[in-house]
């Protein structure tokens, strides 16, 4: 297997991460930043292996499901983690849980880079105050939206390009030499544990005790029907039907009372 990434591939992925981290498109890019799935799709398209990319990204998504971002800051940057871990998984032939072990430290480093972006933006506040005192709409638009976006691209594009073009092949070669060994077995176990932790966190955040029975029902149904190789769409339809029946029954009970 060739463990390399082209200049064009590294540049496109780097520009995508810079766009997501800049939040130039408002809440659209904010959601893209918090969810690795779209970044994984872009990486898969660029690398020419969408199935492998999405399988690895789905596992990475699990560890970020329960994370919150107070003030817009996260302890780990999902977009940065995915942009590095997924190419490594594709080039090195990693399992999804092994890709998680790569994504966690990379995402932590990405959070420091994002905090440095905040630091750079503090130098714009004087300019913003000046335009606000002058009631200059165009100036405020420049200092609040355009200039921070330029700073984000200037910061993330070269950093991600260097990490992708020079760092990803090295990590892929290193992981390929260790594939099947004890270290990778440890990474596999840790990655699976982190995914389970992500699910537990999201249940703790949005779950209610009276609804846990539906979670258990879905789990045991998926285990029992696994030999039939039923896809996710079928499970989604079954879940929708169960939810509709629950609302129908509880609604009729309320009307009767």
UniProtKB/TrEMBL annotation:
Pfam family of the protein (one): EII-Sor
Gene Ontology CC annotation, any one: plasma membrane
Membrane topology, record value: Multi-pass membrane protein
Sequence intervals crossing the membrane: 38-64, 100-120, 140-163, 183-203, 210-227, 233-251
A single BP term in Gene Ontology: phosphoenolpyruvate-dependent sugar phosphotransferase system
Keywords: Cell membrane, Membrane, Phosphotransferase system, Sugar transport, Transmembrane, Transmembrane helix, Transport
Name the record gives this protein: PTS sugar transporter subunit IIC
Claim: Calcium is one of the keywords in the record: no
Signal peptide stretch: none
Biological source species: Acidilutibacter cellobiosedens
Lineage of origin: Bacteria, Bacillati, Bacillota, Tissierellia, Tissierellales
Protein's cellular compartments: Cell membrane
PROSITE patterns assigned: PTS_EIIC_TYPE_4 (PS51106)
Top-rank taxon: Bacteria
């Amino acid at each position: 297997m060739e463990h390399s990434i082209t200049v064009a591939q590294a540049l496109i992925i780097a520009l995508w991460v810079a766009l997501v981290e800049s939040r130039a498109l408002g809440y659209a890019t904010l959601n893209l930043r918090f969810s690795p799935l779209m970044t994984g799709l872009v990486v898969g398209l660029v690398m020419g292996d969408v199935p492998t990319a999405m399988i690895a990204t789905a596992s990475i998504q699990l560890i970020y499901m329960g994370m919150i971002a107070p003030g817009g800051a996260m302890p780990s940057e999902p977009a940065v983690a995915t942009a590095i871990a997924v190419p490594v998984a594709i080039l090195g032939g990693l399992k999804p849980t092994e890709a998680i072990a790569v994504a966690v430290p990379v995402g932590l480093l990405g959070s420091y880079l994002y905090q440095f972006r905040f630091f750079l933006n503090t130098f714009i506040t004087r300019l913003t105050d000046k335009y606000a005192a002058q009631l200059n709409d165009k100036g405020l638009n420049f200092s609040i939206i355009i200039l921070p976006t330029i700073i984000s691209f200037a910061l993330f594009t070269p950093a991600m390009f260097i990490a992708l073009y020079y760092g990803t092949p090295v990590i892929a070669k290193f992981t390929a030499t260790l594939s099947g060994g004890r270290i990778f077995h440890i990474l596999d176990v840790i990655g699976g544990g982190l995914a389970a932790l992500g699910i537990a966190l999201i249940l703790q955040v949005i779950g209610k005790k009276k609804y846990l029975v539906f979670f258990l029902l879905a789990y045991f149904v998926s285990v029992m029907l696994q030999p039939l190789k039923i896809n996710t769409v079928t499970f989604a339809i079954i879940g929708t039907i169960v939810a509709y029946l629950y609302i129908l029954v509880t609604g009729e009970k309320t009307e009767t009372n």
